[in-house]
Amino acid sequence: MVIVFMAEITYTPKGHTGYTCEVVSAGGNSMRIARLQLDGHPVVHGDDALSANMSLVRRLDAYADNELAYRRARQDNRKAALRKSADLHRKIVIDLADLIDDVGDKAEIGWCSGCLAKREHRWVQRRSLTPDAYLCDGCGAATTPCLWPRCAHFALRKPGVVQLGKYCAEHQHVIPGFEKLDTKLDALDDYGSWLEFESRHAKRITVLTGGLVGGALIVAPLFFAAAPAIGGAIGASSGLSGAAATSHGLALLGGGAITTGGFGMAGGTAVVTAAGAGLGGALGASVTTAYAGDDRSFSIELLERGEGPPVVFANGFLSEDKSGWGEWEPIIRNRYPDSTVYRLHWGAKEQRDLRALFAREAGGKVAISGLVKAAGRATQLALKKVGLIGSALTVAELAKNPWWVARTRANMTGAVLADLIARTDTNNFVLVGHSLGARVMLSAAQALGSRRSSPQLESVHLLGAAVNAGHDLTNVGAAVSDRVWNYWSSNDGTLRKLYRGAQFGERAAGAEGFTTSHPNVKNRNVSQQVAGHNKVVPNVTLR
Ligand SMILES: [Zn+2]
Ligand SMILES: [Zn+2]
Predict the structure, then answer these.
(1) What's the 286 CA to ligand 1 centre distance in angstroms?
(2) What are the residues whose beta carbons fall under 8 Å from the beta carbon of 52, sequence distance 6 or more?
(3) pLDDT range class, residue 453, cuts 50, 70, 90
């Protein structure tokens, strides 16, 4: 006789692109998830006890997605990464399904480190568990009281009967504090005190050396660690789930090149858009915390106080990051004489790496080949083949390419700026950016524009924008009450080279204008006044 003592999972392929996957708990509860094609929505059937648990549904889907990708993968290192990821999700599914069997009525209310909300945690009545296990009524994750003495928050519990205790998100400094998640800011430069941690750090996490997220190997930079949280949170609203949602989250942060096994995430163009829902709230807080901790150069410098619409400007990679106005003073004072003016500092390291690459290549006719070389041959091939979206690149591969890292950093900075703006009650911000700084501003506008609320931006000025000419402008246009102005010059050789070299034939909005359109987005041809990438700022008059 076979004694069933833990949940079992059965994975059944359906053709080359689909599957059904079933979990049966030790207590006999079952749930089945079916996906018939790669981009199809998973369909869930089964006992309420299991299918009502979002965490279990997501994990089972993630397991099955990774299993499918594993079976389709060709390269050894990729197969290994996907196997590891599938096994991790599988372990969590088994653990959760069995915990659900034993959940009782006794419950406690506390902040959850999984969904960052104050929820009911139901106690799992099983004596052998160390430490005690609970299930969050919100996200369904297995939780356990924080290990910190007298802390009333709930930490995420690792799978397994006997485990080490864990610290909550506040004590791990994932967030500045549970009570501060929805904090409003009076002005943008108040962000520093908001980000100060409420609690002491339980166990300082210095370097993120490894780990698997949805099949992508994580090495650096740290902000990628926020991806699964974002992916998971977006999952419910975007219709994606599991690994697909995690890929989506990674794509939001990284620009669309990372997927598990070639699943297209709903439009790699999305960048940070879907993050909109989380801005100004819990999710935004965790992203901002991770980001601000990772980029030491990130700061918002107050240059001027005034009554006019607050202006935030940012530079790109070719100018050294010094403090103060730089060359911006005349054009900003001229257009916004009474405004509060902030300078956004960001990504000093990434911009320095990119600058070094340019300096090395300057003068020669090598173009930007170094950008590509740095990424390695396999990456080049992958990039060429799939045009960067839906490719099989891992974060590790991307992290070696200075252009992609800087570009990701820019997207991320934009998301953080959007989160901070969403925390204010101001609705007439003006964003101004040059080069990759324009990408920062575009990404902020895109994130803000994805929220279903009235615009917090008056206008956005993009100068020599290091952004695809074919960028989807829907959310960008929706973010402003006035206009997005794109000042482009056909004499911008740097952007042309950069885009030809690193973006494989894409065109830059700063060198040719946007080819896509939205009624609120206007191209301004400034080729007459602007002789090159570094000549944009002093020679443009803001509209
Ligand atoms: Zn929760
Ligand atoms: Zn705690």
Answers:
(1) 14
(2) 140
(3) confident
The tokens describing 25, both together, are 């708990």
Centre of ligand 1 to C-alpha 336, Å, is 45
DSSP code string of 38-96: TTSPPEEEE-HHHHT-HHHHHHHHHHHHHHHHHHH--SHHHHHHHHHHHHHHHHHHHHH
Ligand 1 centre to CA of 407 (Å) is: 32
pLDDT at 181 exceeding the cut of 90: no
Sign of CA dihedral 138, 248, 397, 510: negative
Q: Tell how far the Cα of 216 is from the centroid of ligand 1, in angstroms.
A: 24
Rounded to the nearest whole angstrom, what is the distance from the C-alpha of residue 63 to the centroid of ligand 1?
A: 20
Distance 115 CA to ligand 2 centre (A): 15
Task: Tell me what the mean pLDDT of segment 324-328 comes to.
Answer: 94
Q: Which ligand is nearest to the CA of 165?
A: 2
- Res 161: pLDDT: 87
* pLDDT band with cut points at 50, 70 and 90 for residue 172: confident
Ligand 1 centroid from CA 373, angstroms: 44
Mean pLDDT of 155-182: 88
* Strands (DSSP E) found in 315-380: 339-345
Q: What is the mean pLDDT of the chain?
A: 78
Minimum-distance ligand to the CA of 139? 1
Question: Would you give the distance in Å from CA 355 to the centre of its chain?
Answer: 25
